[in-house]
Amino acid sequence: MNLPALNLVPIFALPFAVVPLALSEEANRSLAARLTALATPERRDPGAPADAFLFRGREDLFEQPAQPLAQLRDEMLGGLCAAVQAANLYSEAEFAELGVQIRARLLLVRPDGCVPIESASLASWRAVYCVSAPAAAAVRPDSGTLRLYETRFGSMFTDASNWRLRPPFAAGHHAWRPTPGVMAVFPGPVPHEIALNRAAGDLVLVSARARFAHPNQGTPSAW
Length: 223
Hints:
By secondary structure, the chain is an alpha+beta fold. The chain has one domain (17-39, 50-153, 170-213): Sandwich (Jelly Rolls), CATH 2.60.120. It is built from 3 helices and 10 strands; from the N terminus they run E-H-E-H-H-E-E-E-E-E-E-E-E. The strands form 2 sheets. A 6-stranded antiparallel beta sheet has the order 1-8-5-10-3-2. The N and C termini lie far apart (60 Å).
């Protein structure tokens, strides 16, 4: 059969960046100890339900005066900006003119804990940095993974012609294993969660949401 000439291209794509940060193993161990010490009832997010297996801190982590947290903020912001710039058409000079707001919180995922599915409200980007992670659970390879959920085809009629599309057209979710010293960056509206931690130790994460403003747009109102 003679097939017609065609031009088949992907038209939708989502950026996902994996960014190693310049924090040493020693710095991360010290940071993990400091963050764990902040997991107190007073520091818990008042809007989150009480959970013995998950500590969800207030979203003011980068407003704390401690130097290690200031260094973490600078590293995360630098890595986030590098990822966002790489996904955009701005020149380096144009991107430098953008204003950025970022807020962050501690997520301490204890054994048998998880972070329920959510998206970053009022933000264009989400960054998740892994400070410390336990050894992988042998019986559950997906333990403590960051899961991002595909939603574009939620209302699509599925039949024999589209249920096994080849990449990059196939619908599917994405999983990333948090690794100490490494940060994931992706669009804020993407639904995501941290899967159940089946390992023996705590998973220490810093989750941030960010948004940018062009100088001609003015500064967004404070969160």
